[in-house]
Specification:
It is a single chain. The chain is an alpha+beta fold and 212 residues long. The protein has a single domain, classed as 3-Layer(aba) Sandwich (NADH Oxidase). Helices cover 42% and strands 14% of the residues. The chain has 9 helices and 4 strands; from the N terminus they run ααβααβαααβαβα. A 4-stranded antiparallel beta sheet has the order 1-2-4-3.
Length: 212
Amino acid sequence: MVNTISTPAKDFFAVINERQSVRKYDPNVSISKEELRDIIEMAGKAPSAWNLQHWHFVIIHGKEAQQRLYPIANHQQQVVDASAVIAVLGDLEAYKNTDAVYDSLVNEGAMSQEIKERIAQQIEAAYRNKQYARDAAFNNASLAAMQLMLVATAKGWATCPIGGFNAEQFKQEFHIPERYIPIMLITIGKSVAPARRTTRLPIETITTWIER
């Protein structure tokens, strides 16, 4: 029998402390499309430059599809044992979202047409620089990816971000349009073993204070 899990939402600080990169999953535990939709919807509330929402999610859900991903992800067993794998893509052409993001605000009277056009010009100018487009895709999609993992943790699921995969093979196998660039894979499922123990650098190492 295939099992599913459901856990009440957790305190935010508990989520921060509990989220770990889990690499060993119970292959008999499934996750529903509805649960995945809920997690992704919450991930999509992450901040983004100009609110352009520079992300796209490819959900690899089902053992047959996950087996297709297995060699692309360097034969990592977690890819097939997880309940699903979510590929986070960055949008290199997020400027095309401008009207979808701002027209409703104009129609509601929350923003003037003049301000909307001014913002659109700023966005268009920024996206003439291909390096900016790439940087924005990575930066903003990564914000959504982190939020996705925190939401999953709050709902009782384990996750692991994966950077070790062949992005070009992924694009070819799953027919990804040139508009999108693969940022990372995220496995999601039920843990069967503790995450690998990690240490954190002391705050003195990771901070510089400028007070005048």
